[in-house]
Amino acid sequence: MAITTWSDFTGGLEADDLAFITHYRDFCRSLDEATEEVHRSAVQYKQARIFTSAYVKSHYLEVQVDLLHEAKHPALRTSFASTKKVTTHRITLRHLEQWDDDLEDLIREAAETVGPRTR
């Protein structure tokens, strides 16, 4: 994926979709040592390794969170082993009100455990 600007990534989003992805961005940027990479189709956060990414599709916020275990969340769509150690979780939110402390805890855990590298 080619790196682009936030404006290019969010250009054309409706106001509610922009608020959704911006809320995700603001939370992720508040995490210690998280580096943002904006691509044409998604925004991702990493330290040594990507630990979360997101994009808006059809007015849904699709969030990917990588953890060292399988986790539960009410909006969890699927999870699968992406490496021997890492499980990728796909969480789909339709409304900003679905953003909760549990999701923040999962992203924070991903930053602390997967972000620094898992080897």
Give the gist of this structure.
The chain has 119 residues and is an alpha+beta fold. The protein has helices at residues 6-10, 15-29, 101-113; strands at 35-38, 43-46, 50-57, 60-67, 76-81, 87-93. The protein is built from three helices and six strands, in the order ααββββββα.
Give a topology summary.
Elements: H1 6-10, H2 15-29, E1 35-38, E2 43-46, E3 50-57, E4 60-67, E5 76-81, E6 87-93, H3 101-113
Antiparallel strand pairs: 1-2, 2-3, 3-4, 4-6, 5-6
Q: Can you give a write-up of this model?
A:
The chain is α+β, with helices and mostly antiparallel strands and 119 residues long. The chain has one domain (6-113). The chain is built from three helices and six strands. It has helices spanning 6-10, 15-29, 101-113, and strands at residues 35-38, 43-46, 50-57, 60-67, 76-81, 87-93. It has a six-stranded antiparallel β-sheet, with helices on one face. Strand 1 (35-38) and strand 2 (43-46) form a beta hairpin. The two termini are 24 Å apart. The model has no long low-confidence stretch (mean pLDDT 95).
